[in-house]
Amino acid sequence: MESQSPDSDASVDESLFALLLDLGIPEAAARRDEDEAQGSDVNLLPSRHHKMVFVVNMELSMGTGKVGHAAIGLFQLVHEKPSQRGMINQWDEHGAKKVVLQGVNTDQLLELHALALSLELPTYLVQDAGRTQVPAGSQTVLAIIGEEELVNQVTGQLKLLN
């Protein structure tokens, strides 16, 4: 019979164990027996609060309905990617925080969009069809979702839309 060191557990998948350690889970908790973990009040995974932000292009004269286009576009984009569906669930479970902010102009929206993409945050930039209030191709609203800390790196300096 093969002997095991006291620190090893035959039921531990080492690749999953390494992933848990990378997520900041303490080694003892990562190796914890499943039955013990289910009976514990300790939440093994850190809580990651998410928020959805809409940056409105204030150089354009338009109604607030454009934010709706951004919300639907971002939700559809994230929902189409199985790897990002968990983000929507976490966002929803922690209050579905939504914030609407003022963007100065198109150039600022494009800069924020590029920064969000560089941080691998899901984004949706509305390019208007030009059927109602603004010229076709106008960038009206930028939508971003992600961990609150990362989203704040992109939009934390902007003012709320009143």
Automatic annotation (TrEMBL):
Enzyme Commission numbers on file: 3.1.1.29
Keywords for the protein's UniProt record, in alphabetical order: Hydrolase
InterPro entries: Pep_tRNA_hydro_II_dom_sf, PTH2
A Pfam family assignment: PTH2
GO molecular function: peptidyl-tRNA hydrolase activity
Catalytic reaction annotation: an N-acyl-L-alpha-aminoacyl-tRNA + H2O = an N-acyl-L-amino acid + a tRNA + H(+)
GO cellular component: cytosol
Protein family (similarity comment): Belongs to the PTH2 family.
NCBIfam families documented for this protein: arch_pth2
Entry protein name: peptidyl-tRNA hydrolase
Organism: Ophiophagus hannah (King cobra)
